[in-house]
UniProtKB/TrEMBL annotation:
Function, as annotated: Choline/H+ antiporter. Choline transporter.
An example molecular function term from Gene Ontology annotations: antiporter activity
Keyword Oxidoreductase: no
Membrane topology term: Multi-pass membrane protein
Top-level taxon of the source organism: Eukaryota
GO cellular component assignments: plasma membrane
Keyword set, alphabetical order: Antiport, Cell membrane, Glycoprotein, Membrane, Transmembrane, Transmembrane helix, Transport
Annotated source species: Xyrichtys novacula
Record Pfam families: Choline_transpo
Protein name, entry field: Choline transporter-like protein
Amino acid sequence: MSSSSSSAMLPHRYIPSRSAAVPTDTHAAPAPFYGTPHKFDPSFQGPVRRRSCTDVLCCLIFIIVILTYVALGIVAWLHGDPKKVLYPTDSYGQFCGQTGTSNEQKPILFYFNILKCTSPAILIDLQCPTTQMCVSRCPDRFATYTDMQLQHKLSRSYWDYYRQFCKPGFNDPNKPVSQVLRDEDCPSMIVPSRPILQRCLPEFITLNGTVMVANRTRFKDALETAHSVTELQHATKGITGLVDTKDLSMKIVEDYAKSWAWILVGLLLSLVVSLIFILLLRLTAGLLLWTTIITILLLLTYGMLFCWVQLNQLRDMPGSDVSIVEVGLQSDLQVYLQLSQTWIILFVSLAASEASILLMLIFLRKRVRVAIALLREASRAMAHIPSTLFFPVVTFLLVTICISYWAVTAVYLASSGEPVYKVMSPDISCPHANSTCDPETFNRTDVSSSPSCLGSQCLFAFYGGETSYHRHLFLFQVSNLLIFLWLLNFSLALEQCTLAGAFASYYWARRKPRDIPPCPLFSSFSRAVRFHTGSLAFGALIISVVQLVRILLEYLEQKLRGMNNSVSRFIIICLKCCFWCLERFIRYLNRNAYIMVAIYGKNLCTSAREAFFLLMRNMVRVAVLDRVTDFLLFLGKVLIAGGVGMVAFLFLTKRIPVLQEEVPDLNYYWVPLLTVIIGSYLVAHGFFSVYAMCVDTLFLCFCDDLERNDGSSQKPFLMSLELHRILGKPSLLR
């Protein structure tokens, strides 16, 4: 008879005979540093029902912050305008392509002299010192204002074409060139362009290794000043590189539109497979987990052999020795599959993964047995409380709300403000350059007539303001991010505390399932919200502050990346490493603290201290389950995602004969394939996260059970025989 079937026939609680050997480590006096074990309490029957509110001050602060966050969203909504993000803006602060305006049929922004825009950041922020107009199309030919005046005498069509790139209302083709350029009525020249991010940028082509524009490498403007294509490249540096990205984005969106139904089918398939996996884990945990491990090892071995075969085939192929760095970013994955370096990287990665798994199985085989036993017990708990499997849906909805509110608020904050106009002068010696101005009164001021500021204009610069609200927009964005992280971590903490309370009700029930309270999940959820919102908010705030610091360090590193300050970068990297370790430790401690909060109803600090000391008193057992159990669950998630991904690959590459006619015509089959694989992993992770929380809760309850009780008839263990047999023997844990 198997161990699972024999344990199922045991009484609901484990009461060994008086002569039964009790593990010696359960009676050992703990060191003072590790705290004092819980004393025996005959009335203790699981999660405390009569409890009071904990961390009330933090709860009040949390509620005030939420109300303030709502107020911030309302203020941002009143001041912001997402159209400022969606539409480019001309020199007069008018949106290009906005419905119901004079620019409705002019969705593209045109720069009079793009050579003045020497930085890509200037183009994106619309702070280029040249006139910007909304046009219906980009120019498709080379022309200068001087050439237009000469050809206009032969045919008016030349002026009609050139005029669409001039200021609205200007209709004097005979105006002297010097005055036109001074007043910036028309551009000095136009070059063949195409719309990129709704902005007209030069259309570069490469012929025989030479970059040209309309088969030219040099050209002249209206003042006969010679320019080269290199100058245009420098002016549009960084922007022209987005052409392929935009085309790729459009094709990806098109692929999603064609394959979204099949993506949903793949995600539903992963949902069904995850449920079946959990059901089988309930019935045959050991067999299923060992089968999973062996299957993954076989798949890794097959992947290594396949990579080796591909390497041998590419060995004599010309061009296969090119490095991936030289190829750069390519949307066609077939390009990378023709490189030997790609298969070498895959081979080494697969070999390292298989070696890691084999070493873990060799040196931790006893611990794997212990982890399987605890997973089997977790399966029994989830079988008695099946509603816990679907609680991640609640968390998903809360997280979706938090992300949506943060994103909308961030967009409205970014688009807040009134149009700010600044003096743009072609002469860098102009003392009034970059000073604010009023476009309606600018021509009547002394700035435009100043000798050092000739040709200056009052042009739209950006959206902002001088009020206290506009001066603190950056602070509002940081606050928006911090509160978002706080709410996000609170949602995860609420899930962990709720699940812990439900599974603790199962463990501490003396007669299972008879003594399990009705609706344990709902009862645990109501206790967490009613009594422990402050504790959950306190723990979420701590980890949110650490995450915010990590994000700011990433921001600083990006700022220092272009500087040759190796000392500062080294300090930033060290700080990032330290805060990453701190976040991992706090996350682990919070997780166990929430379990203690759910069971005993104490505040966060007390629960964290008791959880820490309880784990320290059972360090050997913690070492058993800390990584091994997570590793086994990770293999299960990988197997589910990989299996569903393999089916999706066979379908999208038309290798399933029955469904060949149903495969949509895609630009890149890897778009839905990666979506299905990542989505399947997340679906499996949602189910297995419940499993992981169940394992952690049962483990803490087990350790507490060993300290509260001694296995006698007066103080019987509430653990199952299998748990006591495996976890109670120190020899199996070494």
